[in-house]
Structures are given as C-alpha cells and as structure tokens.
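User: Hey, quick favor. My workstation is busy. Could you predict this chain's structure for me?
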Amino acid sequence: MRSMFCSVTLCSEAKAMTDHEEYEEISSEEVDRVVEALDHLIELVQSENIKHYLEEAASSIYYLVYEDESEDSGATLDHAA
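Assistant: No problem, here it is.
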C-alpha cells in the first residue's frame, strides 16, 4: 500500500495554537490507524447516539485523505463510459 499525504486546512483551535501555519499534512497510515481505532471503539459502545457520533468522526477523518482519491476514480470511470 502506498503512503499518501494530504494537506488540510487547520481547524480554528489548531490555528490558534500555531499562528503561522494554515495547512497540515496527514498521512494515509495515520488516518487508517485512527479509523481502525474508532471502528473498534464503535463495536464496544452500546449507546446508539455515541455510535453515531463515532461513525461520523471516522467518516470525516477517512475523507481527509481518501476523498480526492474516490473522486478521481469516479472521474476515471465517467471518462471510460
């Protein structure tokens, strides 16, 4: 599996901590680890409300890196048709 990096705009809390930086590089390996940990946590939680929030968090984190890749593959499929 190849390593991917994505530059994302920092959230307002992170901007406050680092006045000079506006973007952060995030590796696909880190995203994969965090999403896997959240998925494991989702399996352990009983509350449907908490599960929902954890699933949203996992999805948001996943798309920090993989959103562009899925859009690119969709565009490739559109051009092939």
